[in-house]
Structure formats: structure tokens, C-alpha cells
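Researcher: We're teaching a course module on how sequence relates to structure. For the next exercise, students receive a sequence and then see the predicted structure as C-alpha cells, so they can try to spot secondary structure elements on their own. Here is the exercise chain.
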Amino acid sequence: MVAAVGPATAWGQAASSTVATSTVVANDLDDESGEDEYIPFIKGDLAYVGTRELVSRYDHVGVRAGPRIIAEEIFLGVAPGIALYPKPWAFSFHVPLNLLALEAGTNEFGGLKIRREDWDELSDFAKVIRFITYGRKEAPLYFTITSLRPYTLGHGGVVQKYQPSIDLDRTITGAVFEAYNRWGGFQLQLNDVTFSNRLVGALAFVKPLGFLDNEILSSLSFGVEYAADFAAPRCVQISEENRSCVQGSGHAAGFDPLTGQSRDNTFIRTDPDLRRPFVEETTVQALGASAEIKVVKTDGSDIKLYSTFHNFIDAGHGFAGGALGRFNLRSDLTTHAFRIRAEGRTFSSRYQPAYFDTLYEITKYQTIRSPNPRYQIGPTKYQKIFGDPENGFVPEDNGREYGYNLEFSWAWFEANRSGKQIAVAIGLQESTRSDDTNFYAHAEVPFIKYVQLFATFLRTNGVDITSIWSDNVENLVLLGGARVQLLPFLFINGTYSRIYRIVRGGGREFHLGNENIVDDDGNVSPFFTNDRIFESVDTLFVDVELGWEFKD
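Model: And here is the predicted structure for the students to work with:
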């Protein structure tokens, strides 16, 4: 069992979004409730990194239909949906169906069969809920059940930009509940309302000087945090019949001269029903503590300092400290809002900042391929960070590591929070640890009433800064799209994405061994293919939407 220590207070002000690989995302993601009030000081997230599609933020009902290309297969997509925004509530439901038109490789008619991978797990059925929301982020009371947004807990020391639906074949619908007042507050997160997956987060903070009229002193807060995955893969197992863990070392290429059997025992067979590998599960837990205080509070600016400490139980620990600034420049009804974060980090071995990150649902099975692998197979995230000596993964000890997190976003608003005209965001995280560079860039252009655009570039687990622009697609996420209104009742939606899915179907064989498996003469294994469990694939959706909005 592994756990961590280190929350951050005032989560709503610190949270940020990233790769949202769910089917639809509202135009004004910060306001699923549809509220349209003038807000003197705009805070919170300004740009929503990871938007997949644009849908109306007004009350509406409609049906989308059109071709959908997923890897090498072509589907007819049909998705009836509805969204209603009775303040302070918001509701949206849809039934997205992908009907096979042309089969991969053969170009034969697929009989319009429903894509099996979309509806073969209990969690998939909850995706009919786009969102059920009360209030808004940073309001005294906020609640949502949603398949749209990523999650960040506190300042992101343990859970940062976690995206439950990064796997093309699995949709996970989560829930968030937040409440606070001048004395303190709390946040609860559940990544899967069906409990098929069990990643949870909780944060509570108090403001001991909340009774003071002084805005600086009354903002002082102290918090505690907990996060855990109660079903984290510890190791990948060989097959349903052989539940032994695949060893990270000790393999040799060729055949044993006495038994005639392969000495490369890195072959596995996936679950015939769920297509994922069989795994031995364990618990990864996180605990934490933090403090923060606003050092500047004016009509046009808000700057806070914060610090956190985290410790993975029976493993490593980390410290972080930084500043978060929010600035508004107003002129008549126009507001230019800026959000800037600068954070320094230091941590020991067997610790990883933002352990539950954007690609966690992929890397928990097999981490991103390293150019200089230490082991003979790609480890699970548990094995890479915490080690697993019993199965040939010796924990790495490079002493104390150092890193930073920088984020900047800007948005231009007219009149109110819903009047966003354009927004951009950029972020960079890096540390002295290998494979720990993360970068994103995002833009939203909603100011043209009848044409709206968005794009996201996300690189994770890069070797260093130079690898951000490499041609490696394994750790690359691309998202982009447009929404065009042709008539009051007719819309065209186009969306491109590069995200992840299992390489092969259920019950298939994978060879996980890499070039570190050599024979007695030092030659690489004759079976060397270095299969990846997940692959990055292209998808392209083009939909004609017939519907009606009940508000101009």
C-alpha cells in the first residue's frame, strides 16, 4: 500500500482543466448552470484546455448525425441530446451511438452494428449524463455529476488535471461536491459514480482568522487532503489462467536448451471481455497538508502564496510552494482577465508530483516508453514510481529532485462571464527527474457568433523540453474542432482528436519485452516487437445537428 500527504486550500481558485476527452463540452465550461451575470472580478479558470466539442450553452434539444472515423473504422454517429439551464441547476443528457458503416481493412459494410466498446462496461452507461450541476465553481455551494471535465484537487499536488475518460473505449462519469464559507470548506471527488473504478479525493480547510474584517488576515487557511485509488494496478499478469506477474528483469532471448521453452516470458493475453490486461490490484493513497494566504487583494488583482507537503506512505515525500495571481483590466463593459501561476517543487525518490494526472488511466497499466528503459518491460506506474522488487522492479534512488510548474492564461470578456470573446492558455512542468516534462497550449475563439473554434496541444511525460516538439505520438494528445451555425435550426460540428485505446481486441496476445532482452551472445530477442498495451489513434467526427435553441 502506498499513500501521499499534501492538499491545498481554496480548491476552486486553484483548480484547472485539461484533456477533456468526453463527447461534448459546453461553450462556457466554467458555467454549466447557464448563468449570465455581470461579475466585477473574473477569477477561476479562463481557458478550458481539452474541449472536444462545442454545444450550445442555451436551453436546446436536437439530434446530431454524421460520419465518425475512429482509427481505421468508419461509423455513422447518431446522438440525440437535450440541455436545460433552470438556474441554479443545469441538466444535459444524450445517447451517443456509433453504428459501424465500414469495417477496418476490408471496407465491407458493417451492418450499422453498435460499436461494442462503447457500451460493454457498467461505467459506459453513465455517459448518457453530460452533466447534472448545481451552482458554479467557486460559489459557496457547487455540485456536479459530469462526464465532461477533468479534476484537480487543491493545488494539484496529488490529483492534477486527472482525466477519467482518456481511453477511447471507456467513459467514466464522476462527481464533485464543494462547499465553503468565511470559516472554511471542503471538496469531495469521486471519479466513477458506478463505482466500477474507485479513485476518490477529499479536501478540507479552515480559516482560523475568518472572523476578522481584514481581507488579508482572514484569508489565511490551513488544509488537509486525501486521495486514493483503491484498485490501482500493481503489476500486469500473464493471463486469466496464469495470474503470475510479468517480471521486469531476469529474461533472456531464445529457448532453454533443456526444456525447449522460451526464456522470454513477457507474453501476456488480455481479458476477452474487457480487452485490458489482467492485473494484480493494490491501493495507492495520499494524505497531505497545506497553507495559503492572500498577500494582495484589490478591485483588480488577487495574489496568494501557498505551500504544500505530501508524503506517499511507505514511500517518498515532496514539498511545493508558489504564487497564484489573478488580474482584471476593465474598461466600460470589457474585461481582460489574466491568471498566472509559478510554483517550485522538490521531492525525494519514490514520489511523483501530480501522481493522478491526465494520462493516469493509461499509464497505470504501462508507463510511456522511455528511450533508455531500465527494465525489460514497460512498468506500471506503481512499479515505476514506488518499485516492485518482488517482480523485478528495483526502486530508483536519484536523491532529491527539483522542478517547477508555470501556467499562464488570458481571456477577453464583454459585459459578463458568459461574454467570452477569446482565450488562450499555456503551461509547462518540468523537473530533474527523467520523463517528467509536461506541456500544454490551448486556444478558444468563441467571439464569432456563427463560427466557433478551439484547439489543444498536450505533451506529457517528455524526456526534456526539447522533446515537446518531437515526432513521438505515444505521449501526445491533440484536440481541435469547430461549430458552425448555418440556420437557426441547423449546425455543423467537426472534431478531431488523438487519444488512446487498447491496441488489440480481447483475448489477444501481447509481447511486452523490449530491447533489453538479449540472448547469450548479446543479440536482441527474436520475438522483439515491444508491444504497447495502449496506442494513440486519430478520430474525426463530422456531424450535422438539427435542433432548436429556446433562447437567442
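Model: If you want an answer key for the exercise: The radius of gyration is 24 Å. The chain has one domain: 11-549.
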